[in-house]
Amino acid sequence: QVQLVESGGGLVQAGESLRLSCAASGSIRSIDSMGWYRQAPGKQRDLVASVTVVGTIYYPDSMKGRFTISRDNAKKTVYLQMNSPKPEDTALYYCNAVVTTVDGISRNYWGQGTQVTVSS
Questions:
Q1: What does the H/E/C string look like for 52-76?
Q2: Three-state secondary structure call for residue 119
Q3: What distances in angstroms separate CA 106 from CA 28, 69, 75, 78, 84, one per listed residue?
Q4: In angstroms, what CA-CA distances link 17 with 12, 43, 106?
Q5: pLDDT tens digits, the chain, 120 residues: what are they?
Q6: Which of 31, 89, 95, 113 is the most exposed, having the fewest neighbouring CB atoms within 10 Å of its CB?
Q7: Under a CB-based contact definition with an 8 Å cutoff, are residues 92 and 117 in contact?
Q8: Cα pseudo-dihedral 35, 88, 17, 91, rounded to 10
């Protein structure tokens, strides 16, 4: 089994920075892409950013210039640096990873989510 554990969420004021972390653990052979999604109440879950094992980063157009994703392969951890967040960034942020487990099977995994609330 694989677990993704997020941390770093909370209540911040608009303009305050925060950094989300997501650590993967379990029966992992390799991790391909890792990324962050978010879901606001009543809305669909949307991609925020993703990064491959070789460091290729993707941001949807709507997210470019807003946040910064990074990854530490040795720690099996992905980060999301949120600079100058806005109230509209309030959402439940989910970590996602495509993991090949020791049995050789590649699967998509999700964390439990960490709440980010940005007050104005």
A1: CCCCCEECCHHHCCCEEEEEECCCC
A2: strand
A3: 10, 23, 19, 18, 36
A4: 8, 24, 34
A5: 999 999 999 999 998 999 999 999 999 999 999 999 999 999 999 999 999 999 999 999 999 988 999 999 999 999 999 999 999 999 999 999 999 999 999 999 999 999 999 999
A6: 113
A7: no
A8: -50
DSSP annotation of 27:
S
Helices (H) and strands (E) in the chain — how many of each? 0, 11
Residue type present at position 107: R
In 37-76, which positions are buried (b, 16+ CB within 10 angstroms) versus exposed (e)?
Answer: bbeeeeeeeeebbbbeeeeeeebeeebeeebebebeeeeb
Supply 3's token pair.
């677990």
The runs of H, that is alpha helices, within 1-120 are none
